[in-house]
Amino acid sequence: MNVVCVDCIKEGVKTVRPTDKDEHPRKPRCATHRLALRNRQRKQNHGRRIETVYGITGEYYQRLLNHQDGVCGICGPITGRKGASRRLSVDHNHGTGEVRGLLCMTCNDYLGLIKEDITILQRAIDYLLNPPSRNVL
Ligand SMILES: [Zn+2]
Ligand SMILES: [Zn+2]
Fold first, then answer.
1. CA distance 103 to 74
2. pTM higher than 0.85 for the full model?
């Protein structure tokens, strides 16, 4: 007897696909639906985690992501990859807890390294525009 995937039954899929009935005798799923389930769970877990850590919902994360065109809030248009598989980190002000936006890991780390200090950022810009070596004879 063929064991049919529980989700295939639900969706009325007629083709009988191989399932993982040995591992999940009560809820066997085909490879396609196994993957779909894993993605759903992953999204759910992510939603729960950011809700606990940052106090924003998965839905808000998605709106923020759309607002940022799906890329990092700093390097986005330059080096960002739309639809990159790696999720963007939620960047927040460590003092006030305010969520600022979504950043790639590099930019998030970078802000941490300079302690979110815009004076340092400005000095870095000045340094690059006017390197000290050019003023030494
Ligand atoms: Zn299925
Ligand atoms: Zn970035």
1. 7
2. no
Q: How far does residue 100's CA lie from ligand 1's centre (Å)?
A: 40
Angle at which helix 58-67 crosses helix 31-54, to 10 degrees, equals 90
Please name the fold of domain 70-137: His-Me finger endonuclease fold (3.40.1800)
Q: What pLDDT does residue 85 have?
A: 54
40, two tokens = 């759903």
Looking at the CA of 14, name the nearest ligand.
Answer: 1
Distance CA(21)–CA(124), nearest Å, equals 59
Cα–Cα distance between 135 and 126 in angstroms, integer?
A: 13
12 CA from centroid of ligand 1 (Å): 9
pLDDT tens, position by position, 49-92: 999 999 999 999 999 999 999 899 999 866 555 555 568 999 99
Domain with CATH 3.40.1800.10 in the chain: 70-137
